[in-house]
Design a protein that fits this description.
Largest sheet: 4 strands, antiparallel
Helix content: 40-55%
Number of helices: 15
Distance between the termini: 55 Å
Shape: flat
Radius of gyration: 27 Å
Amino acid sequence: MIIKNNYIMRKSVICLICFLAAISLHAQDNIIDRVEWVVGDKAILRSDIEDAVQAWLANGQKFKGDPYCVVGEELAVQQLFLHQAMLDSIEVNESFVLQSVDQRMDYVLQNLGSKEKMEEYFRMTSSQIREMYYEMEYNNFMMNSMKRSIVGDIKVSPALVRRYFNSLPQDSIPFVQSQVEVQIVTLEPEVEISEIDRVKAELRDYTDRVTNNETSFSTLALLYSEDPGSARRGGELDFVARAELDPAFANVAFNLTDPSKVSKIVESEYGFHIIQLIEKRGDRIKVRHILRKPRVSDENVDLMLSKLDTIANDIRNDSVKFELVAQLISDDKDTRNNHGLMFNKMTASSRFEMQDLPVEVARVVDGMKVGEVSSPFVFRQNGDKVVCAIVKLKSRIDGHKANLKDDYETLRELYMSKMSEQKVMDWIKEKQKSTYVRVNSDDSRQCEFKYPGWVFYEEK
């Protein structure tokens, strides 16, 4: 993707599958709507609960109690968050919402194969699907922002973490999976000039065909663009701000003024592009593009592997330190200033569980001893860039029950999570006392709710 990942979306694919299941069911005609809950001024329909129950079941999720009680209450709690977020004028970053919508649309298109199949599956037009995703993502961001506001700053000290750990029963102490720290040196094989010329010639040919009205830009993008997310939409990106784009791409895209014209060829970290303006709206822009990526020859890959093999031998013979090599020659901008030490953005530490490493790196590290330097290998960085690498296993911690010495950060996160959850639960219980709730179904009054403090009102 040409759009930079400015916001790390930590929603799991499973959550998306749940949503898709719910939407597909909602598109069917066999659900008869009626109002089941009213929370404040928001109605929760029977179809809302039916959809969510079926989505949870499709995901294999277990219910503690009657599914309709559990899900109905969960939707009611969500409305408490959304209602308070509106009262507090919680603001949502529009850019983050749109990026998340794009990711979801891309995921659906990749799995269903085409825009037409997607529309058939959901029984909606593409624009209706996008609007549906937008509302869902907007609400998700609102609820998460509201929860962060409720939780606020949690003061954590070593003494509090120690007290929390000492209070845990033995069978509740978490098991920490095996973790490793890995240093890496990467070198990118050189792309031959003739290959770059070939790619540029292709892009010039596409430009000529559009300019001469032989075909449309979107058709060429669908056929030839190597950005899979946008190619399925005829190369189209959603409205984005300049900061969301690769800088070189943004400089060209934001200078376009005529939607009938095609830009000059622009090189970004992803490859070479041509761009066509669709619309400008304030400080945001909507364009379509075609991306082509030069191929690295096998000969150049072998040459770089040979170079790394010599370097690895020098490190093993103590002729040079791995850390110095990383600093001086590594092409990996994320690690070269940190002695080559890889950083786990999900945990904000240098420790990785094996499944969190790039697959090729994990495969190499798995059989290594601490302090060992690997043989050179090839892997794809950021999904598509071919790089050659050597790694050094800096440390390994075998799986074990958590302890304060080795796992302070893990226990600190668990403590903060517990405190956050408690703050949110206390807020919900307090909010229940002042929120109008009406439930149409007599069965709901017999439910064993997680939050039993709902104040029910009869319909007048």
